[in-house]
Design goal:
globular, 10% strand, seven-stranded mixed sheet
Length: 457
């Protein structure tokens, strides 16, 4: 397995919360509300000192986003012609900002693009990192649009005293190859590393947007959004303008063209973990004042740690994670030691059944097992006591071995030369959106007509 550097986790995943730290917080029996920012994630502690899992419904209320409900899922399927991804169907992709508006624009044949990213913190990614990229790949295939992936080596350097800029850049180069191995279409995907792209010749338009956004953003906005104080370095205060600039198509004239007036109208959809929402709340606040379209967001939950649902899978804690470089043997061992929702004895388990809400192998099946009916069968058998923890762990290990094994094969084919092609600023392929929309409308009309005929008969 690749060497894992023990540093705090990257933006897009919560910072490391070690078991000793959480246990200490619990032992103090201090009530603490959950905290979700790009730099601090905690489910909180209740009045008894018990660690509390993240309440995602409460986050929707706190952040002011909207829940992805069944009606929106049905509209998504009707407009795109694709079944919603398993993460959407099962509520792991659970919240959004303006996804309904994106669907309206897409239905009318308007252009859009996708944007996501990662803060490189180690040489190797784990399956918690791969899930949002897999979902982004799905969206790219569904919408047939360009994708921009930002690797924020500079931000990781700003926020992590132990890391040098050279360390972060090296991690970014490694992570780019892992990301490419998810299966992105090179004709529609541009990946950039901040310190290479922004300081290079093709970053001029990007830098212009950084400055425009930076001038509009106040220190009070950054303090209020991220909780920064006088001890934070000035680079941390400036970085939100960098992350915001990627959400505007005019930052990439080599992709979208030089007509800034027209290009500024192209909307962006950002799939990300919910902790990244603060960045884009302040971005959305300023977008309209600058003549840009507010970026839309679609939020995912965190993949829990092997240790239990109160913590998350962290790149800086090898025992909490399944790495994309793990062998089948390592995966079997880690899942075997994962937190179980089974009862203390076989007899009690048969009587009371397993607790799927806290059982980590079952939670992982919710993320990785594609078949909804099979998942429901597993749930019923485990909760009834018919399936024991050992059988559930064996099933989970097999699913993850297949997932990671397929990734390893794809990763072996990614060379530095392939990576450099993805990193090269260039034009990307665009589909004829108007023609696609008209064809889709005709197909829907024919289908509805046929259904009406069947009902009449």
């Amino acid at each position: 397995m690749a060497e894992i550097t023990a540093v705090p986790d990257e933006p897009g995943q919560p910072p490391a919360l070690s078991a000793p730290v959480l246990a200490q917080a619990a032992s103090q029996s201090i009530v603490r509300e959950q905290i979700i920012t790009p730099f601090d994630v905690s489910g909180g502690v209740d009045e008894t000192g018990k660690l509390v899992a993240i309440n995602y419904d409460k986050l929707i209320d706190t952040f002011g986003s909207k829940k992805i409900d069944q009606a929106l899922l049905e509209r998504f399927e009707k407009v795109t012609g694709h079944k919603p991804h398993r993460l959407m169907r099962r509520g792991m992709v659970f919240s959004h900002r303006d996804l309904d508006i994106i669907l309206d624009k897409y239905e009318k044949g308007n252009h859009l693009f996708l944007y996501t990213g990662r803060g490189p913190s180690s040489d190797s990614m784990h399956v918690g990192h791969s899930i949002p990229f897999e979902f982004t790949k799905y969206l790219q295939e569904v919408f047939n649009v360009p994708l921009v992936i930002m690797l924020t080596d500079d931000e990781k350097f700003f926020h992590t005293p132990k890391l040098s800029l050279e360390d972060c850049h090296k991690f970014a180069l490694h992570n780019a190859m892992d990301i490419i191995a998810i299966g992105f279409d090179i004709k529609k995907t541009f990946i950039f590393i901040d310190t290479d792209f922004v300081d290079g010749g093709h970053g001029a338009a990007f830098n212009k947007n950084v400055r425009v956004i930076g001038k509009r953003t106040t220190i009070n906005q950054i303090k209020g959004t991220f909780g920064f104080g006088d001890s934070n370095n000035i680079a941390e205060f400036g970085f939100p303008a960098m992350q915001s600039a990627t959400a505007f198509a005019t930052s990439f004239p080599f992709i979208f063209g030089p007509n800034t007036k027209q290009v500024a109208k192209i909307p962006c959809l950002i799939p990300c973990a919910i902790d990244q929402d603060p960045y884009f709340r302040q971005c959305r606040d300023n977008a309209g004042k600058l003549g840009f379209v507010k970026p839309a967001l679609i939020h995912s939950v965190f993949l829990p740690s092997l240790r239990g649902a109160e913590t998350k899978m962290s790149a800086s804690d090898p025992d909490s994670s399944i790495y994309l470089s793990d062998t089948d043997k390592q995966i079997t061992k880690k899942i075997g030691n994962a937190f179980s929702g089974g009862q203390d004895s076989r007899e009690l388990h048969r009587q009371l059944g397993g607790r799927t809400a806290v059982d980590i192998p079952f939670q992982y099946l919710k993320f990785f097992l594609e078949d909804d009916e099979e998942l429901q069968t597993v749930r019923q058998r485990y909760e009834s006591g018919d399936m024991e923890s050992g059988e559930l762990k064996k099933l989970c290990a097999g699913v993850l071995q297949e997932y990671v094994g397929a990734f390893r094969k794809r990763r072996a084919a990614i060379t530095p030369e392939v990576r450099d092609l993805f990193l090269r600023p260039r034009g990307l392929e665009w589909g004829d959106r108007k023609a696609d929309a008209e064809m889709r409308a005709r197909e829907i009309e024919m289908l509805e007509k046929r259904l009406a005929e069947l009902k009449a008969a």
